[in-house]
Amino acid sequence: MAGEPQSDCLFCKIVAGEIPATVVRKTDRTLAFRDIAPKAPVHVLVIPHAHYPNAAALADAEPDIAGELLAEAGRVAADEGVEDYRLIFNTGAGAGQTVFHAHVHVLGGTSMTERMV
Ligand code: 5GP
Ligand code: ZN
């Protein structure tokens, strides 16, 4: 069934608590945790508990959760004290996606105007 956990998915394992992560926010349907290799002073990933391969697939199947993901990204930024931040959804290996479980990067805490990621 769509959205079911995948045994070979790193982020499904983080949702299940099988791999540790530094969690900063949690809802019934989303999880926000610090990126293990931060590209900015604030670098948090927000993911749905449900497994979808990318953000567009999530929005197609579960638009409510996709909206919640965005709202949570904004709350993470507020919690972290950053007013200006960048949200990134890499989609496809050629665009830099390495984990094929929908996620949004919340990047901030430094000037983002010169940066691609
Ligand atoms: P992508 O490149 O797919 O858009 O983003 C995946 C992100 O997951 C990368 O920024 C990478 O640093 C992060 N990441 C990979 N493995 C782990 C992990 O085990 N724990 C955490 N917290 N982040 C991870
Ligand atoms: Zn997954």
Small ligands present: guanosine-5'-monophosphate, zinc ion
Low-confidence stretches: none
Mean pLDDT across all residues, rounded? 96
Number of helices: 3
Structural class: alpha+beta
Q: Strand order, main sheet: write it out.
A: 1-2-3-5-4
Strand residues, percent: 15-25%
Count of DSSP strands: 5
* Oligomer class: single chain
If you had to describe this structure to a student in words, what would you say it looks like?
The chain is an alpha+beta fold. 26% of the residues lie in helices and 21% in strands. The chain has 3 helices and 5 strands. The chain has a 5-stranded antiparallel sheet, with helices on one face. Strand 2 and strand 3 (42-48) form a beta hairpin. Helix 2 crosses helix 3. It is globular. The relative contact order is 0.22. The model has no long low-confidence stretch (mean pLDDT 96). Bound molecules: guanosine-5'-monophosphate and zinc ion. Zinc ion is lined by residues 6, 9, 11-12, 51, 101. Zinc ion binds at residues 6, 9, 11-12, 51, 101.
Short description:
This protein has 117 residues and is of the alpha+beta class.
How do the helices and strands line up, and which of them pair or pack?
Blueprint: H1 10-15, E1 23-26, E2 30-34, E3 42-48, H2 55-61, H3 63-80, E4 85-88, E5 104-108
Antiparallel strand pairs: 1-2, 2-3, 3-5, 4-5
Zinc ion binds at residues 6, 9, 11-12, 51, 101.
